[in-house]
Amino acid sequence: MHHPDKRHVEMPYAPALLVRRGSLLFLSGLTAAPVYHSHPHREEEFDLPPLMREQAVLLMENLKTTLAAAGCTLADVVSATRYLTDVAEQDDLNAVWASYLGAHRPTTTTVEVSRLATHANCKIEISVIAVADVQMRGPRNGPRTPPTAGKRSRTKPRRRRR
């Protein structure tokens, strides 16, 4: 959604989105590190590239994979909160963000932090909210039988008690 008097400038986000479909999917903060990593942390799992662009690419791949596990794509993302350890690197992040999202613009909030809790080598963390199409899902996102399935429909009229 845009204001009626919107200026024609290139922005990496939308001021607002109105969602009228689906179910909400909330993703925990993702970084360039493997999504599934040891706790307590093991240093070898956090051997990350030093540049924001490289970490942003790894993060976006983690984001795509995590969304796909829920049957979503980047086009389903409606909001993102982005935490950077150096806001001066925001343009590098925005370049990668745009290359993955194309013309799609979710709402975003970007915050500079002194350090990310995941690991000192992480330069960025992003948490997102996506909208998934409404579908019946069971455990581990597998298909589930609708509640009425398996019940026999009555083909004979009920007898009245006298």
Describe the structure.
- With 162 residues, the protein is α+β, with helices and mostly antiparallel strands.
- It has a domain at 29-137: RutC-like (60s Ribosomal Protein L30, Chain: A).
- The protein has two helices and four strands, in the order βαβαββ.
- The chain has helices spanning 52-69, 90-101, and strands at residues 23-30, 77-84, 107-112, 124-132.
- A four-stranded mixed sheet has the order 1-4-2-3.
- Helix 2 (90-101) links the parallel strand 2 (77-84) and strand 3 (107-112).
- Helix 1 (52-69) packs parallel to helix 2 (90-101).
- The termini are far apart.
Structural class by secondary-structure content: alpha+beta
- Poorly predicted spans: 136-155
**Based on the structure given, which CATH architecture of one domain is correct?**
2-Layer Sandwich
Can you tell me the overall shape? Answer: globular
Counting H and I runs of at least 4 residues, what is the number of helices?
2
Radius of gyration: 22 Å
Q: What is the CATH level 1 assignment of one domain?
A: Alpha Beta
The largest sheet, given as strand count, sense and whether it forms a barrel, is: 4 strands, mixed
| CATH fold-level assignment of one domain | 60s Ribosomal Protein L30, Chain: A
Task: Give a count of the beta strands, DSSP E runs of length 2 or more.
Answer: 4
CATH superfamily of one domain: RutC-like
Biggest β-sheet: strands ordered side by side in the sheet: 1-4-2-3
State the helical fraction.
10-25%
